[in-house]
Backbone:
């Protein structure tokens, strides 16, 4: 999965389909991944913070609608999940680690997973 530097605005996407129902990744501070989801599927999104000291800010942005579908902040060791209902068209989602990089070299990481359910 490709990552992007949010400040440069580059976006690369990979389509999730019935042959690849699970996508996941780990994002450093101020980076993002993108993935596409075919029409008529439900998407289960999950995020977790592997750090035991840092908080991390995250967001899932729908490129087609221009809206955030899931965003928040996770404390150390925290996790969250959300179900996105099916849509009748292909959707591109951008997963963002919106945390600033630490001045002392600390890097808030974000683990994410998207599971597609087409049943």
Residues:
């Amino acid at each position: 999965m490709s990552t992007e530097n949010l400040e440069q605005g580059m976006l690369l996407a990979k389509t999730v389909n019935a042959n690849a129902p699970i996508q996941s990744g780990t994002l450093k501070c101020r980076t993002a991944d993108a993935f596409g989801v075919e029409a008529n599927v439900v998407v289960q999104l999950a995020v977790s913070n592997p750090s035991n000291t840092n908080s991390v800010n995250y967001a899932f942005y729908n490129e087609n609608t221009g809206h955030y579908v899931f965003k928040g902040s996770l404390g150390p060791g925290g996790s969250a999940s959300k179900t996105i209902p099916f849509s009748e068209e292909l959707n591109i989602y951008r997963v963002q680690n919106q945390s600033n990089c630490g001045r002392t070299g600390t890097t808030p990481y974000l683990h994410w997973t998207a599971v597609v359910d087409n049943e």
The two ends are 25 Å apart (CA to CA). Confidence is low (pLDDT under 50) at residues 1-18.
